[in-house]
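Morning. Coffee machine broken again, so started the prediction first thing and wrote up yesterday's gels while waiting. Chain of 329 residues, entered below exactly as on the submission form.
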Amino acid sequence: MSQVSDNPFKFSDTNKRYYTYDYYLRHTYGEKCAKITLDCGFTCPNIDGRRGYGGCIYCLSGSAAPTGRIFKAKADTSPYEIEKIHKQYLDGIEMIQKKWDVKKFIPYMQAYTNTYTSPENLSNLLDGISLFENAVEICIATRADCLEDEKIEIIDTLSKKIPVSVELGLQTSNDETAKKINRCHTYAEFEDGFKRLRLGAPEVKIGIHIIDGLPGETLKDMESTARSVALLHPDSIKIHLLYVTGGTVLARMYENGEYTPMAREDYIQAVCNQLELLPPDTVIERLTGDAEASCLLAPLWSVKKVSVINDIDKELFKRNSYQGKRYLK
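Came back before lunch.
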């Protein structure tokens, strides 16, 4: 059997048995595109005290913040701040174009919670970013509990000018695990935000982030999160590995023997199981995550990201399986 010619998965022109982000971009925009990550100066409600302090246990910036310190999102956006964000965009393009011949870009509001601000500030930011040259889409990373109706209306208005995708961090559908990682919202709250965004901004693409290897979770728990996500039928998903970086609450747990990182083979099995459960038309934007080697404590195998992805491909081939094989509508 050939991994390409015998591939049963329809949203693929390679050996990939899942709907890759590269395939989606090429078939949507006609060529390869690149995301340009931006830091727009925000924080999170589980860092600044609205929902909790310290951020998620794996968040370096949250963990490093002194307990009780209040971070406030900016109330407005000055032209200078828009200029700083634009400079990040141009610098990102310059760096990308040293590696690849790419001409279309997606400004990606990545750092922290990018709707955790006033509606006026959000509107100003999005209007400014929508004018960035050669931008074909805007991507907004946020939390489902930071999507008030007025902000959804702003995002909906933007989507009529330029394609918009919104990435929502879930991590797990298990509320007990969410408490352990200091997520500071329930699955019911996540589901409510997701559904209100879907209804209020129907043209917006919605993505979901999940993390495998969270404290205390089994392979069955990870499958359960995938089943919950499948029921929502997002437009895209990112599957991350939980890794330990120095200076975090998770690092202290690891050093004290309170957390054991996921084994490589278990991660490969978990991801393949999850892919089988997800809708076949949900774009898979990421299959693992990696930290900078200088701050990574564990698992050290995670630095070999390409090798891990190759073994996920091999496992799907070995199973004669593919994304959506066990999906239940």
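The chain has one domain: 21-319. Going to sketch it on the whiteboard this afternoon.
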